[in-house]
Amino acid sequence: MPRAHITLDRQAVIAPVRRRTFGSFVEHLGRCVYTGLYEPGHPTANDDGFRMDVVELVKELGSTTIRYPGGNFVSGFRWEDSVGPREQRPVRRDLAWHALESNQVGLDEFAKWLKLTDSELMLAVNVATRGILPALDLLEYANHPSGTALSDLRVANGTPDPHDIRMWCLGNEMDGPWQTGFMTADDYGKIAARTAAAMKMADKDLELVVCGSSGSGMPTFGDWERTVLEHAYDHVDYVSCHAYYQEHDGDLGSFLASATDMDYFIDTVVATADHVGFKKRSDKKINISFDEWNVWYLKEHMESQKLDTEWRHAPRQLEDTYTVADAVVVGNLLMTLLKRSDRVTSASLAQLVNVIAPIMTEPGGAAWRQTTFYPFSITSRLASGEVIRPVVDAPTYQTGRHGEASVIDAVATVDEDRSAVFLVNRDLEEAAQITIDVRSLGSSRIAEAVTLADSDVYAKNTLAEQHRVSPAANTTAAIADGVLTIDLPPVSWTAIALR
Ligand code: AHR
Q: Which atom of ligand 1 is nearest to the CA of 73?
């Protein structure tokens, strides 16, 4: 049985736990909005047509900031289509996802939904196929109190209070040839800088996110960030990172080590941003908004997408069903985001409902939790105070895709009266025996210890079997003389709450 020893030092603080780390993402894509969040006529729908069964699950998930309305969708979107009297809203083609958009849910409705879930809105503007003025118009419509043409229009449309949106994304994945209106880094950097500068003339306290690379595998990765930031550094606050992982060709060992790639990605973007900042002799630091991350079976999606030639409203798209192994990876990626809270100060699990999502729904029917729901909701509930850097002494293994990786990964958070430790065991066969020195945390009692694992690492929750996989109490956890001991099953994710 592999053994690992972890030392936790209360003084080894990385950064505060940022609530925005637990953000998510709602795109007008597939059934995320329509029959996901919004389904008038559903037995649980409220007067605004929002499914309250989904609202309850979103609250349990503990997501905080929600990025909206895309994604690739935003690059063909006219925001004006989606406000005002519903019967006058046009149906448009969404080229990004080859679907029809009815515009029956827009900014004002989505803001109402956010209030039900107590979440913050992070809004993306279309810089790909529109210009500075539509972005400024949207800002005026959304945030200006009243007394101007567009703020009065919002009031007339039934939303008297401004939305007061703080975080704005300047487009989406502008480096990707799949993006409607994709650009070179130089072109995008100039447009992003000018759009950001204009938006800050309206409100200097906005938090603006410039597009980084769509993934660390992009051929322009690194150069893209450098060039874009050379133009936009002074006007923006965040650079985005996007990363999706999947198991390739049955290589589960590599897949389970995906978090090491995320860590490398963050390192590289931080280094590039700081390099540009230094060249500019700037005091300012650009942080990372990791505003798309998840497991996504992208290869399978690319193959199936070719078959769909119809223009449909809310088709079933990207409805990945997640396994236990996927949930372990998601839990581990979230641990990495926590560990990098010094520079990753906002993140969004992509996405929230039905589309590569922790929550699934059936039209007119049930809503349920995917396997990936659990590590996210438990971490969001337990992590608070400050993130501390664990010293992990564990065996390593060789992966095909990510080099040498530790069998055990860990992170801890410490608050005044409670702390939490999150762990993964990446071993495919064997349980691991862990000892954790928790003396410096001042914790003496285990309040909760839960593990997500299964003898079938490909077990899933489905419409027919909604509760096939869920976390269980880890009864091996014990604490004596400041040392916590616990056994972690193979391919597992674990959370321990201490008091
Ligand atoms: O989240 C699904 C899609 O992935 C988003 O629309 C896009 O930004 C990314 O390529």
A: 6
